[in-house]
Amino acid sequence: MVNVLVVESDSDRKAFPSIAGVQFRSCAIAELADSVSWAEVLLFRTFEAVDLRAVWPNAVDLKWIHASSAGVDRLLDPGLRDGSWLLTNSGGILDRAIAEYVAAGILASVKKLPQALHRQRERVWEHRVSTGVRGERALVVGPGSIGREIGRLLGALGMRVDAAGTSERPGDAEFGRIRHVDELRSYAGEYTVIVLAAPLTERTRGLVGAEVLAAMSPDAGLVNISRGPVVDEQALCAALASGTIGWAVLDVFEVEPLPASSPLWGMDNVILTAHLAGDADDFAERLWRLFEENLERYLHGSPLVNVVDKQTGYVQR
């Protein structure tokens, strides 16, 4: 019998599927350290920030951990990195929803809809000229499955899309070319919009700081749907306030919830959302379908999909 422990918030507790040879239990994140000794498989269905250092010493039978997000940075503490357990993520199930969010944010920003909504609330009738995206250049930092879906959708809007990855290489169906992410500062000014879709790793932490922002065009925008610490938030606030860059669409932040004291709340050239880019009404169904497919592989001794390299934080290729 394979014991699967589902870690979730109390409000999300649900009936589990009936699968031969599998027994399910659920626990809240606060109960995990006491419950993990029962588990061979962990499914994280919660996005709560959590300190797992007290968990791993009790994980005596654990063999596989599945994260319900594409990013696994919240789980990658030294205890997990040093363990023998397999780690998989949910890459693929959020791609379209996130790509649609990115496209909507870009279009709303270049069409100046936030400013128009402000004038609506003030009952001001004022015509202003906006720009478009056809023929403009976009850079997607992180050419994984989410980044590729973003590339496809922006390409369908008529944008010329490149990517930045861990190595320079020719492009493909989604990207005109793939540039080296370590050289971002040198070419950031070539793009109308930079979209951050890379996982948070030691390599990407603070990737977009004052120097990269200063290299961008004053009319350009930044979209972040990866993790807040990929951007130096203080430098971004300064760049937006000074006109160093034109606008931003931000779904993730260094501290979440975003503190009420953050100047980002009051900027009319910022679209700010509460870490919801991947939220879709069929998310739970897609997550369970992916997990059950991987669970079938696990039961039959077949290779799992979406296995993450615990040292780099990237899915193994």
UniProtKB/TrEMBL annotation:
Residues 105-277 form the D-isomer specific 2-hydroxyacid dehydrogenase NAD-binding domain. It comes from the Bacteria. Pfam families: 2-Hacid_dh_C. Keywords: NAD, Oxidoreductase. InterPro entries: D-isomer_DH_NAD-bd, NAD(P)-bd_dom_sf. Coiled coil: none annotated. Signal peptide: none annotated. This is D-2-hydroxyacid dehydrogenase. It comes from Rhodococcus ruber.
